[in-house]
Design a protein that fits this description.
The chain is of the alpha/beta class. Helix content is about 45%, strand content about 15%. Helix 1 packs across helix 9, helix 3 runs parallel beside helix 4 and helix 4 packs parallel to helix 6.
Length: about 250
C-alpha cells in the first residue's frame, strides 16, 4: 500500500499501459482519476476494480488535442479531488510515415497530444502541487525519444521533447517539494504492438538483450516506484524500461 490515501491523475487510462498503471496505483491504495478522449468501455471494470481494493476510480473525458477542453476538464478534476499527489502523463498517439511524405496535420496532431497536452496538464496540476509543496509527476516518453525511429519523426520528436520538458520542469519545481521524472519504455507487449506483423516483432526481440518484450505491468511497477516515497530523492531522471535495448 505504497500510495494509501493518495490521489492520482492518469491520462490514457482506458487501455494498454495506462490502464495497467491505473490498476497498479489503485492496488497500492490510490484513488484515481483517469483521462480518456471519450467515455470508455473500461470505466465499469475500473470502477469495480477500485471497489475491490477499497478505493475509487473516476473517469474524466476530454480531447487531449483541444487545449481549452482539456484544461477545463483537468481543472474540474483537480477541484473535485482536492489536489493530486501523483500525475501520470501517459496518453499518446502515433501517425507514422516517412518525413518527406508526412502531412503537417499528422505532424501537428502527434505533437499536440504527446507533448503540448502534457504541458497544459502540468500547468494546472504542478501549480497546485507547488503550493502544497508535494507531488510526483511521471511523463511517459519512449526509447524512440532517446534513439529515434525511422518512420516516426513526429512521435520520436514528441517523446524527445518530453524528456527535455521533464528535466526543465524538475528544475523549476524541485525546491517546492515536487518531483518530475520520465519513463521510457521499449518494446512492450500491448494490443497496439500485437498488430505489428510477427516477423517484425521477432526482429525487435532479437535486438533486446533480454530477448523478450516487456509487459505493461513491468512499466506500471516502475511508475509506482516513481510515484511513491521509495523514490523520494529521484527527480529529473529518465527510467528506461526496455530490457537493455537502450544500452
Amino acid at each position: 500500500m505504497l500510495l494509501e490515501g493518495k490521489k492520482a491523475f492518469v491520462t490514457g487510462s482506458s487501455r494498454g499501459i495506462g490502464r495497467t498503471i491505473a490498476e497498479t496505483l489503485m492496488e497500492n491504495g490510490a484513488e484515481v482519476w483517469g483521462l480518456c478522449s471519450h467515455p470508455s468501455a473500461a470505466k465499469a471494470d475500473l470502477e469495480s476494480f477500485a471497489s475491490s481494493h477499497n478505493t475509487k476510480f473516476h473517469e474524466v473525458c476530454a480531447d487531449a488535442g483541444k487545449a481549452e477542453e482539456l484544461t477545463a476538464a483537468v481543472k474540474a478534476a483537480l477541484e473535485a479531488s482536492g489536489g493530486f499527489d501523483v500525475l501520470v502523463n501517459n496518453a499518446g498517439i502515433t501517425k507514422d510515415g516517412l518525413s518527406f511524405r508526412m502531412s503537417l496535420e499528422d505532424w501537428q496532431s502527434v505533437i499536440n497530444v504527446n507533448l503540448t497536452a502534457v504541458f497544459l496538464i502540468c500547468q494546472v496540476v504542478s501549480y497546485d502541487m507547488i503550493h502544497r509543496k508535494s507531488g510526483s509527476i511521471i511523463n511517459m516518453s519512449s526509447i524512440s525519444g532517446i534513439h529515434g525511429e525511422a518512420g516516426q519523426v513526429n512521435y520520436s520528436s514528441s517523446k524527445a521533447g518530453l524528456i527535455g520538458y521533464t528535466k526543465a520542469l524538475a528544475k523549476e519545481v524541485g525546491s517546492r517539494g515536487v518531483r518530475v521524472n520520465a519513463v521510457a519504455p521499449g518494446y512492450i507487449d500491448t494490443e497496439m504492438t500485437q498488430k505489428v506483423p510477427e516477423k517484425i516483432r521477432d526482429e525487435w526481440v532479437k535486438a533486446i538483450p533480454m530477448r523478450r518484450a516487456g509487459t505493461t505491468k513491468e512499466v506500471a511497477d516502475c511508475v509506482l516506484f516513481l510515484a511513491s516515497d521509495l523514490s523520494a530523492y529521484v527527480s529529473g531522471q529518465v527510467l528506461g524500461v526496455d530490457g537493455g535495448m537502450g544500452a
